[in-house]
Amino acid sequence: MASGPDALMAERQEGARRRPEREKWDDARLVQACREGDQEAWGVLIQRYRRLIYSIPARYGAQPADAADIFQAVCLELYAELPRLRKVESLKSWLISVTAHQAFHWKRRVRKRHEREGDEVHPDVSDAQADVPGEILEAAEREQSLRDAIRGLPPRCREMIRLLFYQDPPLPYSEVAKRLGLATGSIGFIRGRCLKKLARALGDTGFGE
Rounded to two decimals, what is the model's pTM? Predict the structure, then answer.
């Protein structure tokens, strides 16, 4: 049996091999695997909701370093809660609520520090509320629903949408075609088909209602 660096390398290679399979799992299966100690499943679960978690501190005015601290706190809370998490279908709402409250407590600490040091308190900080604003919850849920719908698309559509809509600056069709190995003239047609699939997926979730 391999040991030392060889064993570690073999473990990492095996983990990398298993990860794509786990990315297809739904939340319930990932959570169950996490409870059984599957570290790859934990990594996939956190990656799936990473943007959702980070988006909420940003709305509270947190800088990247503070947002990273809030992200870590939420991950620790989720890890501790996994054995008791009964309604896995409510995981997204649970994460939004926990993250928003973590962000609120961060904002309150910042406000108290400013007051203690006699600094001017920025309006965004002084307006911190214990209740999570409804618009934050709604926006976070809509954004995550969009990410979930994109994740469920066929790989080519998923990659095309990423290249067309999530690049800054936007890529020209010629570059998108090159990266996908397609003819430039076919991008518009395939884009339309992919967007229709995305619209159907979003419709199934009640997005925009």
Answer: 0.68
